[in-house]
Amino acid sequence: MPETSDRKDDHIRIIEEEDVETSGAGFADIDLVHEALPEVHRDEIDTTTTLFGHELAAPIVIESMTGGHPNTTKINRALAEAAQKTNVAMGVGSQRAGLELDDEELIESYAVVRDVAPDAFLYGNVGAAQLLEYDVADVEEAVEMIEADAIAVHLNFLQEAIQPEGDVDARGCLEAIERVADGLSVPVIVKETGNGIAGETAQRLADAGVDAIDVAGQGGTTWSGIESHRAAAVGADRQEEVGRLFRAWGVPTAVSAYEAAQVHDTVVASGGVRSGLDVAKAIALGAQAGGLAKPFLGPAGQGTDAVVDLIETLELELRTAMFVTGSASIDELRETEYVVLGRTKQYIEQRSH
């Protein structure tokens, strides 16, 4: 099996078997102000939202995780079937393996999502570093592979720096993103992979014409930690140590969502989002939706029903948060009062000076 494909299998195994979680996303520092007289019926609260003209039943995104190895087909099938049943958004993992390796089995690990989710909002995924080699037509291939409604361009340079075989040339990526955002047939989302996007970078992306920003901040799964485990397995001791050192590097998700929402009107908050309450807090901070990755991985291994069950739990947690803030709609939740405490408050205040 080629190197890119094997790496996908390694990543899933490490996430399932090792401790690759970090704390500090910042949601614990966000308190939504309680409304003792909500004057709404909980069951009539409207959790729907619109993403690029596509109405979702709830502002929940099954974040990009995997694809590119035969073992990942089952995972993507369960996630996509659940997205179809519950009408939430879903992204696939990097499609590099599908684009660069002429292997029907690998392509099927991605294409399965549209086969089982004909109506769901699905987005594809390519790396910013690969855009230096791809033209717009190559990215259109990724769109066609899953009949994508949008494409995510992922920024993962810390992860690449830890990988023994990583791509560490980040020159020209913003210009390449701008070229794709201008020429692609579907909207372009730029997403980090666990280290966040600071306000200044969000502004540069907004100026480049990207359609959405997924902050994927510090505080959830640590790809630096994952690559540290991979480096250890091949005896790359120096990379293993650097991976451990940068395990908790990045802009906390709550801070990143707040800053990005100041300069772009379509922000997805991911990175350490672990409940519907976290999704509610993200929306209060200005995000359009909240995204989760690792929490869906275990259920996806069990099958579609387990994924649906988690989505329904998240939706009830979100609905409850809306009820006790008196928010009858997502637009009202976006205007709800909140208090910022602790490290997150200090971070935002220091950054605003």
From TrEMBL:
InterPro entries, per database record: Aldolase_TIM (IPR013785), FMN-dep_DH (IPR000262), IPdP_isomerase (IPR011179)
Parts of the chain that traverse the membrane: none
Binding-site positions, substrate: R7, K8, S94, Q95, R96, Q159
SUPFAM superfamilies: FMN-linked oxidoreductases
Organism of provenance: Natronobacterium gregoryi (strain ATCC 43098 / DSM 3393 / CCM 3738 / CIP 104747 / IAM 13177 / JCM 8860 / NBRC 102187 / NCIMB 2189 / SP2)
Catalytic reaction list: isopentenyl diphosphate = dimethylallyl diphosphate
Ranges of residues in domain FMN-dependent dehydrogenase: 22-95, 169-336
Alphabetically ordered keywords of this record: Cytoplasm, Flavoprotein, FMN, Isomerase, Isoprene biosynthesis, Magnesium, Metal-binding, NADP
Localization per record: Cytoplasm
GO biological process: isoprenoid biosynthetic process
Assembly notes: Homooctamer. Dimer of tetramers.
Any one GO molecular-function label of the UniProt entry: isopentenyl-diphosphate delta-isomerase activity
Top enzyme class: isomerase
Family under the similarity heading: Belongs to the IPP isomerase type 2 family.
Protein name: Isopentenyl-diphosphate delta-isomerase
Top-level taxon: Archaea
Function, as annotated: Involved in the biosynthesis of isoprenoids. Catalyzes the 1,3-allylic rearrangement of the homoallylic substrate isopentenyl (IPP) to its allylic isomer, dimethylallyl diphosphate (DMAPP).
CC terms in the record's Gene Ontology section: cytoplasm
